[in-house]
Amino acid sequence: MMPLPRRSFLLLGAAAALSACSATIPVLPKTASTPESLSDEEILADINAVRRANGAPAWAYNVALENAARSQARLMASKDTMSHNLGVTLRERVTAAGYFGAVGENVAKGYRDLPGAIQGWMQSPGHRSTLLNDKFVEFGLAAARSKSGKVYWAMIAGGSFTPWLRPA
After folding, report:
1. Rounded distance, CA 168 to CA 156, Å?
2. b vs e for 29-62, b when ≥16 Cβ sit within 10 Å of the residue's Cβ?
3. CA separation (Å) from 79 to 10, 82, 83, 118, 133?
4. pTM (2 decimals)?
5. What would the pLDDT profile of 105-129 be if each residue is shown by its tens digit?
6. Do 71 and 156 meet the contact criterion of CB atoms below 8 Å apart?
């Protein structure tokens, strides 16, 4: 048996070390797009990858919810303040966008990309609950940049009111 050249030995060692680490790294999306250039397909793939990795069913993408999320992201960016209510409630925003189902919202600020925002939501129990909720079936997401360059994110999940109703 021929001995391995030093370079091959080092490469094999590095590969083994990386494969050992991969099991401890959480599954995060791989999107490389800037917030302004994210496509609906990238957003859908990233959100559903995290849902799938956590045993939740896939969501559909909804443009009305995206429009309501865009309204909130732009409002937060214009005021350079993160909040669920900056004078317009979530219900008012989704109704104005033409959506009349049950909704939940996640907001974030300062994350440079979608994987960062998703990771932040996954580390917050309330946001994680919204992101992985199986009562919601669709969502929309948007980001807006403030004058100072800070990125504000809004994701609105939606679905029927029926799963939320308690039996009489």
Report:
1. 29
2. bebeeebeebeeebbbebbbbbbeeeebeebebb
3. 52, 8, 10, 23, 30
4. 0.79
5. 999 999 999 999 999 999 999 999 9
6. no
